[in-house]
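Page 42, continued from yesterday. The earlier attempt failed because a stray header line got pasted into the input along with the sequence. Redoing it now with the clean sequence only.
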Amino acid sequence: MNKNNFILKLNSVGKYFLAEAGMKLNVLEDINFEIPVSSEGSITSIIAPFGSGKSTLLKIISGVIEKDRGEIFFGDSQSSNKNIIPLIPEKPSSFPWLSVRQNIKFGFNLTENKKYNLDNLIALVGLAAYSDHYPDNKSCGFRFRISLARAMALNPSLILIDDSFKQMDLESREEIYKLIYDLSSSEKLNFIIATTNLVEAIQLSGLIFLMSAKPGKIVHRIETGGKYSPEMRNLKSEKFSSLKSEIEEAFQSVHSLKTINYSV
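This time it went through. Structure tokens are written below.
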């Protein structure tokens, strides 16, 4: 049981890389945020300018790279190798020589703590009719579904998505938004989505964090009132306009407004 009432908590997390002549380049600086527990699953977005370090932040949360400072907690446990936090990259990948079924089965081989059977998982991501197809020459949205199923096969507490929707056409994006919402609600899954797309974040998320330009830090927190709500999906609604203005003003205050993508 999660007695701390949070899914993820970051305390003063920082990261630097070594630049030329051994100089330290600060990429992330004092990252602090907390995602509360939700009985209905959650979708959280981190809106950040290009080059702000958002991908680095997700890699740190997932354990792909090490932080240099600070602490990370999952539930009531400090981060360790026991936590499996899958990360879906900007360009979702798959094994082109394996079928959809074989690709997704690969995720099952990485864990003994299985929540789903293979056929059920393939159906959940909308690929039941394509289980024997191969991902080569398929759309980005198709490959994303494979990556999502592989992530779910690990039975994680949290799934990270790194700006994976921007390669998709509008119709595919809308389908994937709905899929993520449905899975979050029905399977009680928690998602963190790093994005440069303001509209996408408002439409999808119950909680939004704004991240500054490099060195990245969290500069603003917004609760939208509910994930993927009809009001937020209506770009002409008063609530959508109000949140959009709040985000624009917050980014303007840290001189990052021009780097944010407003496309739908």
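Notes: The chain has two domains: 1-85+159-179+191-264, 91-155.
Reminder to self: strip header lines before submitting.
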